[in-house]
Amino acid sequence: MAIAVGSKAPPFKLYNTERKEVSSADFAGKTLVLQFFPAAFTRVCTEQMCNSRDELSFYNDLGATVFGISVDMPFSLKEYKEKNNINFELLSDANKLTIHEYDMYHCNFICGIKGVAKRGVIVIGADGIIAYAEETVNTGTQVNFAALKEALTKLK
C-alpha cells in the first residue's frame, strides 16, 4: 500500500538526467506530482511518462511540478528522456531510498529482478502533506490519470 494520504511527505534528494541533485526542499510551498515507474524503455512505463508529457500543460496550469522517479541510472534516464521527448525531470533513485520512504519498493519485478519502483503516483500538496497516493495493482496496470487530475484540481 502506498504512503498514507494526510501524512507528511518524506524529504528526498535524487539526481536528474544531468546528474544534478534535486531536493524536495527546493520545491517547498509547491505542489509536486511524483510519478513512480519500474523501468525506462518498457512499454507501460513509456505510456505513463508520455501521458504526463502530453498533459504537462494541465499540471503546469495548476502550478504542479511533475517528476518521474525510477531506479534507473541518470545516464539511462537521460537517453530515455531524449528518445521520448520527455519535458519534465526524470530522477534516479538508484540507491532505492526514496522508493522505500514512499512505500513504492517492488520486491519481485520480472525475471527475478528485485528492488525497482512500483508503478504509482504521489501528490504532495504545497503544505508538504500527501494529498493523493496511488499504487497500481501490478506493474502492467496503468495509473488512474483521471483520479490524479481530479485530486490535483481539488487542491487548487
Question: Could you explain how this protein is built, in words?
Answer:
By secondary structure, the chain is an alpha/beta fold. It has one domain (13-155): 3-Layer(aba) Sandwich (Glutaredoxin). The protein is 28% helix and 24% strand. A hairpin with a 5-residue loop joins strand 8 and strand 9. The mean pLDDT is 89.
Give the key terms.
single chain, 156 residues, alpha/beta, Glutaredoxin, 5-stranded mixed β-sheet, two-stranded antiparallel ribbon, 24% strand
How many domains? 1
**Order of H and E elements:** EEEHHEHEHEEEEH
| Beta-strand residue percentage | 15-25%
At CATH's second level, what is the architecture? Answer: 3-Layer(aba) Sandwich
- Helix-strand makeup class: alpha/beta
Q: Please compute the radius of gyration using only Cα atoms.
A: 14 Å
Q: How many E strands?
A: 9
Helix tally equals 5
Intertermini distance:
26 Å
Low-confidence regions: none
Mean pLDDT: 89
CATH class: Alpha Beta
Tell me the CATH topology: Glutaredoxin
What overall form do the CA principal axes indicate?
Answer: globular
Question: What do we call the CATH homologous superfamily?
Answer: Glutaredoxin
Compact summary:
With 156 residues, the chain is of the alpha/beta class. The chain is built from five helices and nine strands, in the order βββααβαβαββββα. The mean pLDDT is 89.
Give the SSE layout:
Elements: E1 13-15, E2 21-23, E3 31-36, H1 43-54, H2 56-61, E4 64-70, H3 74-83, E5 89-92, H4 97-101, E6 105-106, E7 116-117, E8 120-124, E9 130-135, H5 145-155
